[in-house]
Amino acid sequence: MSAVLTHDATRRTLDTDKGVLHYHEAGDGPPLLLLHGSGPGVSGWSNYQGNLPAFAEHFRTLILDFPGFGKSYSCDENPMLTALPSVLDFLDGMGLGEVAVVGNSMGGNVASRLAATHSDRVKRLVTIGGIGTPVFSASPPEGIKLLVQFVDDPTRENLMAWMESMVYDPALLTGEFVESRWQTASDPAALADVRRLFNAGSLAGMRVRNGAAVVNQIETLTKIAAPTLLTWGRDDRVTPLDSSLMPMRLIPNCELHVFHNCGHWAMIERKDEFEKTVIPYLLRDVRG
């Protein structure tokens, strides 16, 4: 199966009132939606291409590009504001009701809000970092600072510094991997979209522990009814491990799995362990 699951063989598009949503599709079975993180050069394919063959063995796997990322339509506003509405547009346009959702970083944040506000659409939820609030760690975290540094000065060196903050072992950052990210991240249109999300203003906002925002997040977490698996890299420098404490306690039906020697990209850096942890969790309902 993996031999035919190339970027071009799996790519699809969906027309919506707001623009074209780009996605990848492979496999049969219950629907599974994969939502990617944010950052320079990020897309659904860059996050999940390595995991697609394993997921497609069990699920009709759909990898969506958020507006402002990959090949979906560009944004006129902060991509975080358009992300959740675009997921609902996608589910409606595809004729999908209840789905399992896996979200990395920003995708985990969006998936958690989807589960909290549209509980009838999420059967099971898996997050890879991305939710919660740091309890002990400084804010903003190192990874976000380096991301803004690249956005302000988009050089290959700054991109490499940011990418090194995303992983535990920089050996993962092969020349081919870095070049692929650089080609996408240095595109002016892609940079403009990322700048709407990460900039000096967003950094300043993260330095202030906004009480109202924390209360809103607590309310969101307590409203998630779907069975939830939190996955985390022990060495995550973007959403530090202590960020898991709040969602672990507040999501009613929640489990936590921590990957050792792993940064923010658990689905890439601990690929085999990630798949062997997440797929059985998603299949519990199917097998039961």
Automatic annotation (TrEMBL):
It holds the Pfam family Abhydrolase_1. The keyword Transmembrane helix does not apply. One of its GO terms (molecular function) is 4,5-9,10-diseco-3-hydroxy-5,9,17-trioxoandrosta-1(10),2-diene-4-oate hydrolase activity. The keyword Hydrolase applies. Its EC number is 3.7.1.17. Residues 30-270 form the AB hydrolase-1 domain. It is an enzyme of class 3 (hydrolase). One of its GO terms (cellular component) is membrane. Keywords: Hydrolase. InterPro entries: AB_hydrolase_1, AB_hydrolase_fold, AB_hydrolase_sf. This is 4,5:9,10-diseco-3-hydroxy-5,9, 17-trioxoandrosta-1(10),2-diene-4-oate hydrolase. It comes from Gordonia insulae.
